[in-house]
Amino acid sequence: MAKLLAMILAGGAGTRLEPLTRERAKPAVPFGGRYRIIDFVLSNFANSGIYRMKVLTQYKSDSLNKHLSRSWRMSAFLDHYVETVPAQMRTGMDWYKGSVDAIYQNLNIITDEEPDYIFVFGADHIYRMDCRQMLDFHVQNKAACTVAAIPVPIEEGREFGIIDVDANGRMRGFVEKPKNPPPMPGNPDYCLASMGNYLFSTDSLVKEVVRDAANEASVHDFGKSIISELYKREPVYVYDFATNNISGQEGKERGYWRDVGNIDTYYQANMDLVEVDPVFNLYNDRWPIYTQPNNFPPAKFVFADRENKRVGHAMDSLVSEGCIISGGHVKRSVLSPKVRVNSFSEIEDSLLFENVTIGRRCRIRRAIIDKNVEIPPEMTIGYDLEEDRRRFHVTSGGVVVIPKGMKVA
Q1: Residues contacting 205, CB < 8 A, separation 6+
Q2: How far is CA 335 from each of CA 42, 345, 368, rounded to the nearest angstrom?
Q3: What is the pLDDT of residues 296-311, one digit of tens each?
Q4: 89 — pLDDT class (breaks 50, 70, 90)
């Protein structure tokens, strides 16, 4: 069998997710109540039978390192691992200057592991993918590099890096955010957008990152610096993510992929999960999303005093372990572990991170409340955005964000 290695790029600053990234790396941001964003790409590799993963970290990585070391313990006996690799300045006094430079500065990993093929994936997308199917496509076409791409409506193509391919899937052009995107073969209404996930034959990757390091004019980005030129010299193929088959996956989820790059898209991706019949189903036990197991008690709903409207309940919501809904009402929301909602409070269309406490008679709507925040009684959030802007961060889409540990008064 071919020897495989996954190198996962988790070093970005994630400034567009501020203030959620004020004290943590973007891949460590909670998602779906009990997960971290990075759990999705790691679960994809684990479920695909690819058990050697190096996570390249850089900015504010303590929370991410803790999560990986406590959650992702694999069998050393079988040489399976998820290992974090901090920026080490192995090639000079610079931090990573881009995604390509992150690989270049860690070429010693490739020398030590001697893989035949290397996956270079991002750590900040929400999706399910059988990476073995991409590998089969890569080997079948004898590619130097294979780029994963997702079909998007052609009118949306100007928001992405768009790939032009021939009828066999071989790349013949790559343009960043074009005004007139080239259509995909056989479907003129759609074009192929790069997902930022790459599979390389090892010799090709090493040759290209070394070449890039010698180019002082390079921006050291895989899309702009490597892929946009490599297809002119070597066979580069494009894997259509919409053809990927996942066990237990319903047809409507095929091709689901979200780049949660800013607060509003991150918020909406979480809201997708609370639908009665969600397009992305966390409950597919044939392709589970793995994360840290917690020894918290079950979620608890208390008080059935209907006469005084003191009833603890949650509707169309995800409620994690350790939560106590104590006479409060929760609707279309995602609650991380150890959240407490006290009597007569109303929570709607909101994300509450771990260890958040909501006081009595609060009204909260379209808000993200980061961990370890206590909301005092009688407070209203999300109903008067002008007032909220004076105290909190409010996105262009009208989502109120309260940072981790903020003292709210």
Answers
A1: 103, 110, 118, 120, 145
A2: 23, 15, 10
A3: 999 999 988 888 889 9
A4: confident
